[in-house]
Amino acid sequence: MLDFPRWKTIGISIILLLGVLFAIPSFLPTKTFESLPGFAQAKVNLGLDLAGGSHLLLEADIADLRKTQLTNMEKTVRTAMRGQSGPDDDIAIGELSTAGGRISFLVRDQAKLDEARERLFSETQGAGLTGQRDWNIDVVDSTRIVMSPTTAGQTQAVADAMDTARDIIDKRVNELGTREPTIIREGNDRIVVQVPGLQDPAALKALIGQTARLEFRMVDANADPNEAAAGRVPVGSEIVPYAEGEGNGAAFEVLRRQVMISGEQLINAQQSFDPQTNEPVVSIRFDSGGSSIFAKVTAQNVGKRFAMVLDGKVLSAPSINEPILGGSAQISGSFSVASANNLAISLRSGALPVKMEVVEERTVTPELGADSIRKGAIAGIIATVAVLAFMIVVYGRFGIYANVALVFNIALIVAIMAAFNATLTLPGIAGFVLTIGAAVDANVLINERIREELKRGRRVFQAVELGYSEASRAIFDANITNVIAAGLMFWFGSGPVKGFAVVLTIGIITSVFTAVTVTRLFAARWLHKTRPASLNI
Question: CA angle, 144 as apex, 138 and 146 as ends, to 5°?
């Protein structure tokens, strides 16, 4: 138990040395840290409550989601009525309406009414565990089918949209280069976003709020400009306004409702520069299916105009001079480098399935964070000094070993957190302080067991060896239960609770290593060197 082969001594020494070296960058000033080589630039990040940052509470526009749900179902109905085997298998419908939040349409051939219902039943089966239908399907006047969303379907649609929105917001915020944002759902229709260290909350709001719905649609060349100005357009077309600063004086375009290609078929979007004008643009690339459609549509419409529509606003409406066969395109407009980059991020991460509005905004200033750090540091220093003094007074030499191991323990915790790019919050500091107190608990058990063995008349070597071996069982059992508790907090908790659990778990693991293995190494080296006949502990 007290024998340490050379390889084990060297291994423990290397671990402790690396812990100290990788902990140092977290305590260096920013300028000094940035001058370090790349492999050494790993440090503990400070959370929102310590470094300052932005807190946003977003609320979903449920009315917009209902509208989108209705539009998607309208497309589903039209697709379902088209036959899989060709035109002969089509079911002719007419008078399709979406008024009143319902879908109503006429089946022209009454003999195909039941087949139409069967096709719709397969499209409206709920995806949830309950298996309830998303839409009710009723027949009115023998030939008309009326579809209305069910409560279960609407609830599931909101839940799915919010989960998707949370994931997309997480992608967008992380692409900004921030670290460890907290993005969680609150209630049924709200999302909390906390980004530590972000100094421009306006840019964050603009990026999160951008739905980035990109569409390519043909301009209706048959539309009369005078009629369009009066709000009258051909069937199958609609008036779409230009984005602010675009259009060269034109206020709108008349576009076909049919979308020839959409942003869902994008595989990449990057900010770049126009080689002719050197203005910022967004270069996009479609997947194989999108590339094929884009090539086909542009080949069939050479000489005609198509429009790039972003979030319901026309960015540009250029002419198709030749077929575009490469599956790539360029979005130009009144972009700055920052706005083009933000648009590229939004397009890469996908469109938000529902509009989000900022209903609450809080900014935590760095000064408040500095005050939190100062108070947390004072608490940590007081706890550390008290523990160090107690261990020296009560256990003498073995108390000094425990204190040295505690210093290494702190270094290892910081080093591991830096390696995993973890974030330290106020609850994390609480876990840190708790770890300091708990770290020497193992040494208390070991030292008290050594005292008992000495009182029983054991020799020094035998008493120390039995003290470590017998106390280690209780130490491991106690800390396993602590790790389980911390794991449950991490799994079921969120935000600050997770931060506390992470620090606590790391602290438990490192404290067992330093309190048992490192102090045993110190004790073994001293005993083999001095061979004491008695021991005061």
Answer: 40
Q: Can you spell out the DSSP letters for 356-422?
A: EEEEEEEEE-HHHHHHHHHHHHHHHHHHHHHHHHHHHHHHHHHHHHHHHHHHHHHHHHHHHHHHTT-
Taking the CB of residue 16, how many other CB atoms lie within 10 A of it?
21
Ramachandran quadrant class, 327 (left: phi over 0; alpha: psi -120 to 50; beta: rest): left
Give Cβ neighbours of residue 456 (< 8 Å, ≥ 6 apart): none
Name every residue whose Cβ is closer than 8 Å to that of residue 144 and which is 6 or more positions away in sequence.
95, 104, 105, 106, 107
* Whether the Cβ atoms of residue 83 and residue 119 lie closer than 8 Å to each other: no
pLDDT, one tens digit per residue, over 451-497 is: 999 999 889 889 999 999 888 888 888 889 888 988 888 887 766 67
Q: Tokens in use for 408?
A: 């290494």
pLDDT digits (tens, 9 = 90+) for 80-124: 887 666 667 788 888 888 888 889 999 888 888 888 888 888 777
Tell me if the pTM is above 0.85: no
Which residue, among 248, 247, 260, 272, has the nearest Cα to 330 in the 3D structure?
272
Longest Cα separation, the chain: 109
| Phi, then psi, of 184 in degrees rounded to 5 | -135, 155
Q: Which distant-in-sequence residues (6+ apart) come within 8 Å of 316 by Cβ?
A: 246, 307, 308, 331, 332, 333
Cβ neighbours for 497, distance < 8 A, ≥ 6 positions apart: 427, 489, 490
CA distance 256 to 211: 21
